[in-house]
Amino acid sequence: MATEIERKFLLANGNWRTKVVTSIKIIQGYLSRDETTVRIRKSGNQAWLTIKGPSQGISRLEYEYAIPPADADQMLMTLCDDQLIEKTRHLVPVDALTWEIDEFHGRHHGLIVAELELPHEHTAFERPDWLGQEVSSDPRYRNSYLASNPFSGNP
Question: Considering 30, 63, 141, 145, which one is annotated as catalytic?
Fold first, then answer.
């Protein structure tokens, strides 16, 4: 059993861009977006099936399994209702932790969200100057919500 503990923030400015060490293109879709979500994600030649349980604060159960990329392609195109999320994930290290900054494309162009996975709910972390409003508890910033609700500039 694995637990995901994640904080999510909007960005105050673009100062993070000079600190990016890696950028990864991601496409994902959802087989289920209820309390328990089931996601298919593909990045390059790798793909995963991820099951996430209901949120309890900033924590939730998460199970992730590698799957064949060809299977992911088939599921994304046939089972995800054409409600795909396309984004570039930029990795930005700050102290001992790494921020994942998701820059959305297509229907969600203009949305950029910074996520930080923590080892414990109360782990202290540095708040870089580019960090804006926290949206960890706002369901409108969940990828599962965005899959069927295009970003309009005011989610």
Answer: 30
